[in-house]
Each structure stands twice: as C-alpha cells, then as structure tokens.
Amino acid sequence: MRSTAARSAAVAALALAATAVVVPPAHAADGDDYRVTLTSSTATTDYKHRTVDLTGTLTRTDGTPVADAPVQLEESVLFDTWNPWGDPIDPTEWETRSAGTVRTDAEGHFTLENVPADRVENTPSPYLFPRHQVMFRAIYDTDPTDFHMAFADTTVKVKPATGAISYRVNKTTVREGDTLVVKGRVTWPAGHGPIAGTRVFLRTYFESAYNARTTTDARGNFTVRAKIRDYDNEFVVFSAPKDYYIAGASKDLPVKNVTP
C-alpha cells in the first residue's frame, strides 16, 4: 500500500531543497538583434584538472562584431532529480552561480580563463545524485526587463574519482517497529581529500531517500538506523560525497520486511 504521508513528506523535502538554488531560464532565445557563441577549452575535466577557459563571440545577426559590450557568464552544476513517481517535471536540478562579466574586444571576442568547473559552496548540496556535468552560459542582455536576451551554452563532462561503500546489517528480516542498523565504511582513492563528514543515507522506501542519514568519521566509518514501517520494502545504503569530483556509491541490502 502506498503511503500518502510518505509521499507528502518527500515532496516537501524536495520543495525545500529546490529553494536553495537559482534555476536557469527554461527557454533559449538568441534575441532579435544579436548572436552569442560560447566554447570551453576542454570537453572533460577530472579531479586534478577542474578549471576551463571560456571563449566566445558577440555579433549582430548580420555578423557584425559588437565591441566593448558586457557579457555575463554563469555556471550551473547539474544533478539528477530524485523522482520515482515519473511526474512530468524537469529531470535536472541546478546549482547556478555567476562566473563574472567580461567585455568584448574590437572583434566581438571575449575570454574568461581558469573558471572552476565545480561547486564552490562550502556546504554539501541539498541534491544527492550528481550528474557530473557543468554547464556554462554566456548572456548578452540589453534590457533585463523584457525577458529576452541573446545567450549560448556549453557543457563540460566531469570524470569523478570512484568511491566505494561496505556494510553489515544487524538483521536481514525485519518487521514493523524494528530498528534496522547498518554499519559500514565509505572509501575512495588515497589523495582525494578528507573523508570525514561524508553523508550516508539509508533508504527503506522509494519515497524516503532523505529520512535516515548520518555522516562518516575520520576513517570513513558510519552507523545509520531506520525505524521500520509496515510498507518499507526497499533497502539501500548510499553515500553522497560533498566533492562533486568524487562519485558516491550504493549497495542494495539483503533485508526483507515480513510485516503481515
């Protein structure tokens, strides 16, 4: 039986998380009078190489370069939406920030070097499933009040280091009211930053990804607990590293709910 309360709680959690970021415009119009291009110096970044150089042009529609014009640059780090219901929503979550404003030269060219293709926030993302893609956008907007602008996008793929997770459970058969305890360890390759404080989640139902959680100690060890409900039927433990360049890991647990 599907729990209305569980779905409502999950929807509320997603709605709260969505307020933490700025979502880029859903439409893409070049503008009536101008054209923008944008190119990244590389198509792929990795743990040790996280910056790109951005170059582009601003011209009128007839190809005439636009000199000494301000072009805004934005960066969006992409995440997959946790959406088990198949609702008709955008399957992407965005964390967007300004990368600055540059001015075109006499030929309409612009450049911004050493731009981090990365999250810059010190706090973990409210989103748990990184897509490992970073999108950059160049915008030329002569009138911010008319909601019409010239812009161009380019996307960089992130090649993350691979994390792992191991576990043991206190029981493999549970009933309503039991407490499932999962102890384990999160690891990733040496030299890839501290592991302490990595978030670990225990999902017991497909609408409860955020409910049971903990963080690792300095060695990557964790203990996470969940109170079993009669409708819990999916048992997965997974990690959500703060670093966008480290991939989380997950394990299906050999646990069965035998509540009558």
Query: Considering DSSP H and I runs of 4 or more, what fraction of the residues is helical?
Result: under 10%
DSSP strand (E) fraction? over 45%
Question: Given the helix and strand composition, which structural class is it?
Answer: mainly beta
- Enumerate the strands of the largest sheet in spatial order, edge to edge or round the barrel: 2-8-7-4-5
Distance between the termini: 12 Å
Biggest β-sheet strands, sense, barrel: 5 strands, mixed
Radius of gyration: 22 Å
Mean pLDDT across every amino acid position: 87
Low-confidence stretches: 1-30
DSSP, total strands: 19
How many helical stretches?
1
The 3D shape can be described as: elongated
Order of helices and strands: HEEEEEEEEEEEEEEEEEEE
